[in-house]
Amino acid sequence: MSKRVGVYICSGCSIGESLDLDRLARVAHEECKAPVCRVHPFLCGEEGLATIRKDVADQAVDALVIAACSPRMKTAAFTLDPRMPMDRVNLREHVAWAHPPKDEDSQALAEDYLRMGIVKAEKSEPLEPLANGISRTILVVGGGVAGIHAARAAADAGYDVVLVEKERELGGRLAHVELDFPTRAPYTELEETGLAAEIRKVGAHPKVQVRMLTRVVRTEGQPGAFAVTLESQGKQGTVTVGSIVVATGWRPYDPTRLGHLGYGKSPNVVTSDQFDAMIAAGAPVRPSDGKPAESVLFIQCAGSRDQNHLPYCSAVCCMKTLEQADRIHRRDAATKVYIIYRDIVTPGQSERYYARVQNHPATFLLKGDVAGVRNHGDKMAVEVKNTLLGEHVEVPADVVVLATGFVPNAPGPIETRNPADAPGGASGAQAQGQTGNGEAVAGKPWEPEPESILNLTYRQGPELPICRDGFPGSNFICFPYETLRTGIYTAGAVHAPMDGLTAAEDAAGAAMKAVQCVEMISRGQAVHPRAGDLSYPSFFLQRCTQCKRCTVECPFGAIDEDEKGTPKFNPNRCRRCGVCMGACPERIISFKNYSVDMIAGMIKAIEVPDEDEEKPRVLVFMCENDAYPALDMIGMKRRSYDPSVRVIPLRCLGSLNVVWIADALSRGIDGVMLIGCKYGEDYQCHFAKGSEIASRRLENVKETLQRLQLESERVEVLQLSLDEYAQLPETIDAFVDRVRELGPNPYKGF
Amino acid sequence: MATAQPIEPDVGFLKQVMALGAHDAKKCVQCATCTSVCTLSTAETGFPRKQMLLTQWGQREQLLSDPAPWLCFYCGECSKECLRKANPGETMMALRRYLTSQYDWTGLSRLMYRSAAWELGILGVVATVIVLLFTLPRNFGFGLLSQAGPQALSSVMLNKFAPVETVHLADTTLALLLGFFLLTNAARMFRRLTRDDGIPLGTYIRYLPTLALHLFTQARWKGCAAGDAIKNWVRHLLLASGYMLMFTLVVIFLPWFQVPNDRLHWTSFLGYYATAVLLVGSGWMILDRARKNGEMYRFSHLSDWLFPTLLLLTAATGILVNILRVQDLPMPTYVMYMIHLAIAVPMLVVEVPFGKWAHLLYRPVAIYVEAVRRDALARGA
Amino acid sequence: MGSAVLSNREEKSLLVIGGGIAGVTAALEAAEAGASVILIERSPFLGGRAIALHLYFPKLCPPECGFEINFRRLKNNPRITVLTQAELESLRGKPGDFQATVRIDPRYVNDRCTLCGDCLQVCPAERADDFNFGLTRTKAIHPPQPMAFPAAFVVDRAACPEGCTACVAACRYGAIDLGQAAERRTFPVAAVIAATGWEPYDASRLVHLGYGKLPNVVTNVMLERMAATEGPTAGKIVRPSDGNAPKTVAFVQCAGSRDENHLPYCSSVCCLASLKHTTYIHALYPEAEVTIFYIDIRTPGLLEDFRTKVATNNHLKLVKGRVGKIEEDPETHNLLVTVEDALAGKKLTEAFDLVVLATGIVPRSGGLPAEFPRDEFGFLTNGTPGFYAAGCAKRPEEVAATVRDATGAALKALQYAMRSARHE
């Protein structure tokens, strides 16, 4: 035995009453040759812990197996040294609390778990954190509201910042806006943006380097050591930064696609943006003849919430329109302002501003669907159907303003959706109404002008992957800054449609993540979701066949390739999920405390009863983030399930290497079940694609099984959401029953 | 699909209605809470939500041909529940004020609703005429006071001083004249509401009892949501009964009603009843309005104050006349009589065909038209 | 450079008030960047309102999933001190150099508790479970919430019979101390983040809607608990009057929100919550007819996709019109909902088996230092250096927005702590 494994069995919490601990200790001592094995009635108590600490201090042990409660319990107490090999054998939730006491099957389960735990500890190596000489400089791309606030927040916290802006000045879309939406009680008056002062502050900040007229032309490396090539007026230079905030903002939706709303029919149909420019110069006029506009009509959701255009709500257009109405009436209270809306979206306190602006006698709001816009003498006439007046009406106006929505300044197509996919609903009705005269063709992807932002040299592409609707944000509600590229965070309108205030706050959050990223990496720790993990994979490249599976499958683009296809691993981009380890057919990727060999050893440690005992064995690979806690809950509830299952938690189901399935089946294990997180559009996998990748791998395994004359039903994959834990016993039992019906694995005994 | 109706706000109209009380109408977000809490609003009428929108959008023409504002008795539940405090109840009231001013073909009503000066001015002019009638030297053909003669100055001889026949003739004439104005105004309203509706005359005839019912009872009021709707209705009914009774006594039964002080006629008892009811009823209403007691009284337009005030004063002076007469104080009686007329006559002249009083007829007409429409709709469907 | 930054920062802690999703996030983000954090929470467990939800919109994923990760981050992070049943009693000093005194109420159970449950067997007393709005009962000693962090039982002393020590005798680990007293602790603190969250608007104040009088009128937060596996009905949405499955359900939007007689602001999340609740109902009863009565459906930004998706269901009707009145058929306890379908211009009274009031968000901002400015509705506003607000105590917002806000607040607090450290 290479390691001195100390096995500590807790007899508390009814483990002692349920199991024969002497037999269990014999398994550790005699069978597994663990030099130290102690049973304690209250292991997590001070006395119990002191016993372990003493053995460690005496160097009697250099790896620990704690056979007690779930690793999710008493975590801090049992974390004696985060670098030391250690496994927690879950005798409480997964055995004593879930299975009948003093029962042979329960005992066999506990013994297997103990064997597996000892193997795991034996096959773990002490962790050595990555030594990192890193840069703590934060790069902020984009100098609009979000960029300025991100830069300022990070700089104020003591970090050097490089702020890159492609235009001549800072401020972005709000650069010349003096008044913006209300942010303070009573929320009824426009407020000065204060942006000019912010721009001055950030410009004068000793820790901020502002680079105007500059673009990022190349981003190499990894968090803590990004080499970013900046180009300014033909000249290139490189900066080294630790993490990146992308705050490239938004642009208005292309109005030429809004012909059905009159754009292009007359110069008197303008966009919200164009109208802003017009009223900045003075009172609104009719562009066709320059006469003062006596009436202005706003069409809300122009291109937004429309399955033929932008499927999402652009979030700020209602407030923007109210602001413009307000500004029109500040100049001339007699100008008629019409607002044709589907829903007025002024959430939170902004409702007060809506109430205030609406109260103006010359503001006229009408809910309805715009059916057409036509020229009507020297005016425009807007036809509205399904109105609250109960009538189909036509409103004449001098100027029609299309409240066009947000398109994120991120490269990547925005897919329009086929209205057939979304029948019913208010938006569906509108979309169908527009199909005839709209210029968009349903279902055809709309390619906005591609614009490169980061030009990453990553194997998996040059930009942040799009999350949804063209925005490179996060799919996680609880972790809204987690993009699929480690150390790169989005802020402001490129993150999601939002107003200036929200963008400023959002930017502080993104900067927080950027700051946190460099700090964690400097300590050799992984960032979310395995925050603090000191392990990282190593690649035994001599045996690499350049199959590229790892470089393709890594959800975070951590692995690049050289010309030959040999993987080039960037540890600071890595989230330690082990998807690469699962992908590798040559099994050359391992962590010090998590490897193909280790799990294979654990499988080998399972005692498979002979065929005539009629006791099946079913191996269950479980995602440790969701399925494993779900099974803990079953134990907590003292609910039972078939004791023939042996559970192996995985960092992510995506780290499943199919060789384990082959190992298990060839050892006579009768069935293998994979329980991972939900995947698809609303995936819950914390590593984005892990569970999906695992189920794809399983498809291939099933073909192999058929070739081996094994029923493919012996292997099954299941998606489980943590809230569905109550179904887990039935699901497991049903699978075991199906396996029983298939009969014993013919490879038993081989 | 119906063709699109051109729609453009009549800002002048909007401003007028806002000035007449719809000051909060623009706040409405069309949530329709008002309609759902209104117990008088039915599946088809759906008021007051739609009238709020029509008002916001300055849709004068549509509102002129809309009976809905008259179907509301202003219990105020809608205003109480309105989440934007847009006061639909007061908006409906303002619409009624506006409509009253519009149905009148003489234009007087419009002038009076638009300006307090006009309203008070006209009242003043009529009152002055009455006063002049009494006080000017007889040479000018007036001077009732000087006409009475010395006999009348020693003891109260109201009939001598103002002969019943003359007064009777005068007030009958006045009643006919006012009735003419009121009926023609109501006819204009009726025409406006029923224009081009294509409903056969037979239906209109069949529903005449509805008109009569609501004319005499305003029974619809009972359906209001507010807890004190019945109380308000009864109070209003009593007041109206007193008013109508007094009107009848004065116009038709004056020869028996205005009897010498030593004789009691059956009409006297009716007169006492009417006076008491008028006095208490109008006084109570004024008090409620002053205390803003309930939604209905939260906002008051000049027209809301004038009618009950004049009514109260008329009743009060009427009693004083009687008291002075019983005390046999000739000159004070005559002066009080003059004051009584100087209040009562302008009130009648102004309020009956041109002012708030006209709702007595407008409301039943609207309810009637609504009933006919509903009938037609049911048949059509 | 970096290490200097770090060592300075570790001198003083950040104080985070409130252990809901916003507070937990702010504490973790700051701590993982290197700050020490004191996280105080009023109740005996972390997770706040978010963990009481069944699923989050728009992904329909459970809150436990994210909290599992967050609790793991907490367990692994020695820089965070979590104090439950704790409230800020006083804050003295100046930004960058505060003394925060925290009162910690007794839990009566110490960290020796293993959740073994022996005490549950012997505890003779029961109490209404406030986590389930009193719809279920627990023992006087109980786990505060199914996946509670910290994982330790708590005693509701008010429910204990006089002189009872049954649990103390039953506990093999000496984890129960019924004589525990409240304690006060004082911490040096550089900056304060208030993430005190919200509470649902009291629906009984909406007199026309019958809540509290009509059994089948429930609120959205109650529905949320009913749908939860650990809820009072173990995940079944039923009529409280008879426990039957509802065949027709109405949602009343803006029950108190956007209403100048109640909450004059929009509570931002109720439209999405009701759309989400529709999916709960249809997951249980695919044929149930659901109607959402609304003023405006507000699904801002990318959340619009959720509306688009949910609205495809033929068993869902969206009707523009706010419900003004709910009455009951006393025999069946069915509810008669009066509303105007404003787009159709038709007023209707429709019968429903169950009515859900989409009640709004009321900020919970009482008891905080006066340096936290509040607006007229009680929401905290930023503006005083060293004091930062995050989450629904600041504005009504959904979970992801709350987390973004809390993350930003963490950096602002951190940078203030830094600035003060540099100037000392």
Note down, in words, how this protein is organized.
The complex is a heterotrimer of chains A (750), B (381) and C (424). Chain A has 750 residues and is α/β, with parallel strands linked by helices. Chain A has 5 domains: 1-126, Rossmann fold (3-Layer(aba) Sandwich), CATH 3.40.50; 138-248 and 453-522, 3-Layer(bba) Sandwich (FAD/NAD(P)-binding domain); 252-408, FAD/NAD(P)-binding domain (3-Layer(bba) Sandwich); 538-588, Alpha-Beta Plaits (2-Layer Sandwich); 595-750, Rossmann fold. In chain A, strands 9-6-5-13-26 form a 5-stranded parallel beta sheet, with helices on one face. In chain A, strands 15-22-16-17-18 form a 5-stranded parallel beta sheet. Chain A is elongated and about 100 Å long. Chain B folds into 2 domains: 11-103, Alpha-helical ferredoxin (Fumarate Reductase Iron-sulfur Protein, Chain B, domain 2, Orthogonal Bundle); 110-373, no CATH class. In chain B, 69% of the residues lie in helices and 1% in strands. Chain B has 21 helices and 1 strand. In chain B, helix 1 crosses helix 7 (88-103), helix 13 (164-194) packs parallel to helix 21 and helix 15 (208-217) packs antiparallel against helix 21 (359-380). The two termini of chain B are 18 Å apart. Chain C has helices at residues 2-9, 21-32, 63-75, 118-122, 166-170, 220-227, 270-284, 304-310, 399-423, and strands at 13-17, 36-40, 80-83, 86-94, 97-104, 126-128, 137-139, 141-142, 154-155, 183-194, 198-200, 217-219, 248-255, 289-294, 316-320, 325-328, 335-341, 346-352, 354-359, 361-363, 387-389. Chain C is α/β, with parallel strands linked by helices and 424 residues long. Chain C is globular and about 65 Å long. In chain C, strand 6 (126-128) and strand 7 form a beta hairpin. In chain C, helix 2 (21-32) packs parallel to helix 3 (63-75). Chain C has 3 domains: 2-104 and 182-197 and 364-423, FAD/NAD(P)-binding domain (3-Layer(bba) Sandwich), CATH 3.50.50; 118-170, no CATH class; 202-360, FAD/NAD(P)-binding domain, CATH 3.50.50.60. Chains in contact: A-B, A-C, B-C. Chains B and C meet through helix 2 of B and strand 17 and strand 18 of C. Strand 21 of chain A pairs parallel with strand 1 (5-6) of chain B, so a sheet runs across the interface.
